[in-house]
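EI: anyone free to look at a 702-residue chain?
SC: sure, send it
EI:
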Amino acid sequence: GDSAYAGLEVDVCGDLQRCLADTLAGGLDFLVAPLAHPRHRRPSAAAAASRDPSAPAPAPFARSDLLLNSAQWSSQVVGKTSPWIDADSPSAPYRADSEAALRQELGWAAHLSLHAVLLPPPRLGAANYARIVCQFLGALSHTALWVRVPLVDPAVEAAEASTASNLTTNLTRRRVDPESLASAVDACTRRRLHDPFEAWAGLRAACEGHPQLGVCLHVGASLPGDAELARWNGEPVRAIVVAEDAFTTNKRGFPVLPRRHQEFLTSMLRRNVQVVLRATGGDGDGASGAGGESYIGGDESRIGGETPGVEPTPAEAAAQAAARNEGRDGWNSTRRRWEYLVYLFRKIPDATEQELVEAGYRDYLQAPLQPLMDNLESATYETFEKDASKYTCYEEAVLACLKDRVSDDDAAAGKETVLMVVGAGRGPLVRASLRASARCGRRLRVYAVEKNPNAVITLQSLVAAEGWSNVSVIGGDMRSADPPEKADVLVSELLGSFGDNELSPECLDGAQRFLKDDGVSIPQAYTSYLAPVTCAKLWNDAKAYGDLAHMETPYVVKLHRCALISDPAEVFTFEHPNRADVVDNSRYAKLRWRRDPGSHAATMHGFAGYFDAKLYEGPAGNVHCSIYPPTHTMGPGGEPMFSWFPIYFPLRYPVHVPAGCDVEAHMWRCVGPSKVWYEWSVTAPDVGPIHNVNGRSYWVGL
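SC: here you go
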């Protein structure tokens, strides 16, 4: 249900063909229209059961599927269910009628193979509603279900409006505090009664996070706080309905959105969310053709009861003329709001070259590298080498190190520093080290150690082509290679997205014997970080494999449609050279993310992992290389370093994090004779299973 771009929502559509044609002519891609015919009056279940069989059959509840062809139904129409439906009503007859209507309308939508169906907002604990949705999700093949969710609960919005205008409510004759209303908690579920997210999270949990179930956010006059808006970044938001009351009027009388509305809408558009403009008055009546002769949704029959071929009475004719004029005014207002949204679309800056390169990796699960078991391909090397910011950091680190180790007098006397690059690849670190040497006037003797025989060929070719007379290439695993002398400086880029997940500790411990007693390692240390994250798409993609292994595998991924529930916390730290008497790279960390008591509920799908590496710290300079968000390394043009994407540790089952509740988790780094693996689990707000026990699903081979 993500193929269309922008649509128009109407509440009444008497002539579907003309309404759709005018919508498309207005520059939009699809129409959101009721599934039931506007003149249909559904009999109650009791009335239907007692109907006289000899009586004429009632009119069909929906329009004929022959009005449009199958391609139009499937790509240009989004159906919406009747707004009166409440499958969890306390009234048994009303609940039965609602259930029958919802089943009938969803069945009709499935028959039409619609692009999507817009469902009404759920209430908290809507079990019967969720049950019906679940049943149809299992039967639908192509139709997505969009659940309308208001960003602000109508009761809270009304209380805010009442407070702003200094009015009192009709029921209590006193002002209702919006904050108290918004924080009210259900005594049984401990969920906030007036947080629409809570109702959506409950519905989605009941449907087991089905990939065809998505959110359609309803944007009205007011918006919640930034933290509440941010949590939707990780939810499966398919569309946003922009209501008429979301707009204000500028000095020239044209509709505009407030600043925060603009920012939120732009952020959603960057995540490929579709925009639906709600027609003025919700009925879409109005002129759109040349000369204003045609009108969208021209349901004149609902005003004055016009029948084709029958001359209307003077009163009916006057009512129909007034409706046409009102419709034209309504469509003109809708068109102006649509033109403003187009203006906002065009204001979004074009993607940078780096963003275009990264676009294909956004929210795409990739298994981490097996650096000791596999040899990288040329294309992989080429991708890494394009990241100039990383090699600039390494050059600065080598530069500072050389300045600290070799004084100006020793440099003038021709003192030579032995520098060894382990895991040299196709030579980018060798180049960076040679540039640093030339900048500070310190002589180098370089050894490039590389286990990949194909990359060794490239290195040998570079030595000959570039005239690197001071560079020697050593083929073989750094843990078993035998260079002719020890090094003053050991340089490597063995880091993974979680710092140590590509066996940098094991590799550098093995290569440490190359270092002199006072030798320096670049990097000197690195720390991993972890944060609970909402990322419905990633979780669904892992679940789609249908096995345990993929739910217990960490993935390298360019996070896009995600939201951190709390700031990242420090996990493991490794330092090099490791001078411990007994080297043990296994680790355990108990992590607790303390959330503000006023924070709102969220759904946790796993953890996002990062690292910060201290390449070198000394008198001549401090150089870090990082994908940890607060210290993310930026390139010379302000673009973020892209050699490493974050790592995602999925949870087998999503965890509901109640408002104001902390999150607690445990992380283990386990080391065996032939492999290294992670295990992780959640113990608050709920206790979950330990993932990847004994490395049964994922491990890195030594």
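EI: Confidence is low (pLDDT under 50) at residues 282-310.
SC: 👍
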